[in-house]
Amino acid sequence: MAINLADFSKRLAAVVASIGQESLPDHLMVFLKKQVDIDNAVILFYHREQPPKVTYNDLPSINRSTHITLFLKGAYLLDPCYRAAREGFNGYYQLDQLAPAGFRKSEYYKNYFRYTGLIDECGYIFKLGPDNFLNVSLGRDESSQRFNLSQQRLLKELTPLIKEICLTHWRTQDFYAQKDTHGHIGHSEDSLHTQLESALKSFSTSILTDRESQVIQLFLHGHSTKSIAEKLGISPETVKLHRKNSYAKLDVRSQAELFFLFIDALSSMDNYTGGDPLTGYLNHEK
User: Fold this and answer.
1) Which domain CATH number covers 265?
2) What is the pTM of this model?
3) Which residues, given as ranges, of the chain have pLDDT below 70?
4) Strands of the sheet with 118-127, listed across from one edge
């Protein structure tokens, strides 16, 4: 698609003029949607000590409330974009390049991503500082086709521009804490996000062996039997055996039940002080 330079400049000027204002996400999306057909978009601001904050969301209202709520409750910990950002990824991305093998068969995909209505996702992950990053997620839904190569190329070529806009704007935003007189930001050591991360790492460890817990964690993150076997250096048959034994110990019969056990355990945490969240959850259920 040929770029109309006059229109490009006009819309870019509107974006630049809105930096530091609440209207920036809206202007940014108008600009991006003019360059490439985008059905839905979400902008998520992450701070290391807190769950993500949704700063822009135009998913259809029929999907928005339920699935964003599920995402913020803890499902975001399994999001390939979140995991990639925590591991240092920075720049333009295509979801299929970040997601592990087996992602589209995972329960995170089936119970969250698929119900957003999206069939394809790309976007930008930008590190804003040592503690925070931004995910500008651009999606195509079932009414469209996947992003083609020329559209992906254009979005990738826009990366330096979008990055500078996002860094300039979101580095000035203080969503989670008050700065003291020296400009330092204070955060609680036992913040919700820190608790959720700790709970994810410890999930099932009070019931399963170390190897079984590793396998279950990787299944939750969307890995296939084959990729788990390669990652852990064991055979696919051994992975299947660990999964079977783990399901029996956790009293679940499918990956779907495992996913919702994980979400329910996170959602029920009260006064969490560490360790396997299943301990408190299962005691509460008795």
Assistant:
1) 1.10.10.10
2) 0.78
3) 1-2, 61-66, 174-192, 270-272, 283-286
4) 50-57, 40-47, 132-141, 118-127, 91-94
Q: In whole angstroms, give the CA distance from residue 42 to residue 112.
A: 14
The partner residues of 121 in beta bridges, in order of sequence, read 139
Asked whether the beta carbons of 46 and 134 are under 8 A apart, the reply is: yes
Question: Residue 95 burial (CB < 10 Å; 0-12/13-18/19+)?
Answer: buried
pLDDT in tens, 261-273: 988 888 777 666 7
Tracing tokens 């839905």 back to the chain, one arrives at 40
> In the chain, where does DSSP find H-type helix?
5-17, 24-35, 61-73, 80-86, 95-98, 107-108, 149-157, 159-170, 192-202, 210-220, 225-232, 236-250, 255-267, 277-285
- 205 and 163, same domain (yes or no): no
Q: Tens digits of per-residue pLDDT, 141-190?
A: 988 999 999 999 999 999 999 999 999 999 877 654 444 333 333 444 45
Number of domains in the chain: 2
Same domain for 47 and 140, yes or no, is: yes
Cα–Cα dist 153/40, whole Å: 19
CATH number at residue 112: 3.30.450.80
